[in-house]
Design goal:
about 600 residues; mainly alpha; about 75% helix; globular
Amino acid sequence: MTFWENLWIYNPKEPLIFTTGLFWFWFALIIIAYQFLHSRIFWRNLFLTVFSLYFYYKSGGYFFFLLVFSTVLDYGIGWALHKTEHKGKRLWLLVASLVVNLGLLAYYKYAYFFTDTFNQTFQTNIQLLDYLALACNQLFASNLVVDKIILPVGISFYTFQTLSYSIDIYKKELAPTKNIIDFAFFVTYFPQLVAGPIVRASDFIPQIYSKYELTKAEYNHAIFLIINGLIKKMLISDYLSTNFVDRIFENPTAFSGIEVLLGVYGYALQIYCDFSGYTDIAIGLSLLLGFKLNLNFDSPYVSASITEFWRRWHISLSSWLRDYLYIPLGGNRGASIFTYMSLPIVLYSLWFADGYKIGINAQNGVFITIIILIWAIYLFSKLKFVAWINVPFILSLIIYLGIERQIYSVVGLSFMFIFQLLLLIKPNLKNAVTTYANLTITMLLGGLWHGASSLFIIWGALHGVALAVHKLYMDSTASKNTKIIGFRKFIGQFITFHFVCFCWIFFRAKDLSTVNLMLEKMAFSFNAHIFPQIVSGYSIVFGLMLLGYLLHWLPKHFKISAQNIFGKIPDIGKALLITLVIVLLYQARTAETQPFIYFQF
């Protein structure tokens, strides 16, 4: 493909991402054009919207039409919500936005999960088609694959953004945009479009109508962030992935336990550098264009508790889940109708996860349905003896499913068993118990947001339980506002980091058998004595890992000082430094373009 063809034709092997020369070619042209447009708000927004749509087409191909559809739909629903005061109509408009957006997300992200489970349960042979690809073939005489559903780039991110717009207008916390161009600009804004951070409508839309401003400090900060992000992604993340981490996770049996452990440490650094590197570049680019995106990562591996970790890791997602899922569930206030509705959804999801893994047992589904019905009767009747009937029934089913090795169902039922038992024995702890349930459900669904995989469900459940346990500890010891210092902080950081790394195994591994192999290797074939040989054989890999972790764990004031020093360098010095970085990254780059990890979500 020639250079000019590559400018306009989508190539799935060469997406338009921040680490490609083509992107920087276009961004240079944008900056030149911006000199004439930045003071004209409408034309600036239109110009950036057109480029953002081009950017998405070059990153996601024909899914461009899906993005346009979501934009038009939610713009219309937003205006309809704003114009009507009728409560029933407003509710149905919000439901329409939720159903269509989440329905599209479910179709592209979870269709195989549910279809395969259905086929196993009822011995059917339903085959899936990508109807959008089929329509494109009919309209444009293209030759797109229709018998395989491919996940659209960034669908989880822009779906959450458009939902925040509809929900905030419904709650009368936000006025709609003045026109569809402005809304399209919010949805498609290219720096954060395909991998976040998730931008709230209430944070970004007011900036659409603001005059362009870029102080010298913001300019220096933007350039520093872009350089920092490119180094994180291309020098550290891509190199670790290609030369060490991928090999460990693809075939753990070929390595010793200590190599597997180092591979897990490597992945923890890889995913951080990959994702935070993307958001550093996104925030830097956005600053140069006059828009501010919120911080998305804040040195998460220095956290002394799992609660602190989620205040520092993927902040835009954790805050979105808090405000649009955890609080509606009841949050710290206790149970809501959503909490009780979520329990059966979680149980059925875990039962489906077992079925996807080892085959559906419809009889077990019937028993789970009976448990849910008994629980519903108790909630409506408030008769305690009804709930007590459920206790031995759940316990018996847990034992039976444990023997059948239906692990996910056992986890879900155990959660419900503990939840019910605590409410029956200690009704005065209802608010506390339901708060822990809300935390666990939120994180479990957060795991499911990453994909239709039982491993993502486990990853989310582990973090949810850990958050609940930590909250229980803080409530029991009245240490919620106590600052952790000294040796206790070090112990907290050590435990939190290794718990997060343990969870990353489930997040990265291709299946549960790989997880088991990796854990067995670390437990029974550790072989610590070969550590010097490993370091010698992977000297560059471990040198980068050491550098990455040392920079990550530097105190915050050192990082601020480094930014200040960079800001004082003359422009010619900055240009020379950028040139040096480009040469270094060119030498370190892999043969093929390495997409950002979160493109798949």
